[in-house]
Amino acid sequence: MMTLNRMDETISDALNELKNGRIILLHDSSSRENETDMVAFAGSCSPETISCMRETAGGLICAAIGNEVAANLGLPYMHDILEVASSRYSGLLSMIERRTPYGGRPAFSISVNHRNSFTGISDIERSETIRELGRIAGIVKSGDDASDAFYSSFRSPGHVPILIEARESLSERRGHTELSIRLAKLAGLPPATVVCEMLDGRTHRPLTAGEARKIARAENLSFVEGELIR
């Protein structure tokens, strides 16, 4: 069992990595999704970040934002959007997922492309979209309204799904969205991250925590257990 000092050291290492623009590995818990995500600060997202996540992790590359950022922007969850749209398109009502099989409400909101992008899918264009979301979060962190900057900077739908931290954060939901946003805040960064699930090409299932730890050791990446994050 880890000592308290070792727990603190693990979190401290991860925070330094995020501040330095590096990827960390974040496992939620064996009692939840039991998945490990690659995570980086959105404002530091480079084409190389996207390439690494795409080739090594292989899951869905998303941008997570703090709930205060979403509130500042007036940005809703996707299930709320679908509920409003179902008044006109009634078939949507039966599809709305208000609670996931592993617990809690889905974090998905809209998907976006930066207005400078062409298709939006390339490593260059996705990283620009995500960096801009990091910049928007920075505006909110400074205490200013960012809605004009947000709506003038992006188009939707796009190739970067946005995830919104639960309103009560970790006390409501302990997913990679909330855990990664908490780490960003602990690091003193704006509340915006880029996350991607790690998948296993041999089993065609999520990569186990044990295998993710092996990659962390081989690539000298910080590995954080979500249960340590408070």
UniProtKB/TrEMBL annotation:
Its cofactor is Mg(2+); Mn(2+). Catalyzes the conversion of D-ribulose 5-phosphate to formate and 3,4-dihydroxy-2-butanone 4-phosphate. It is an enzyme of class 4 (lyase). Keywords: Lyase, Magnesium, Manganese, Metal-binding, Riboflavin biosynthesis. GO terms for biological process: riboflavin biosynthetic process. Pfam families: DHBP_synthase. InterPro entries: DHBP_synth_RibB-like_a/b_dom, DHBP_synthase_RibB. It catalyses: D-ribulose 5-phosphate = (2S)-2-hydroxy-3-oxobutyl phosphate + formate + H(+). The gene is ribB. Its EC number is 4.1.99.12. It comes from the Archaea. Signal peptide: none annotated. It comes from Candidatus Sysuiplasma superficiale. Homodimer. This is 3,4-dihydroxy-2-butanone 4-phosphate synthase.
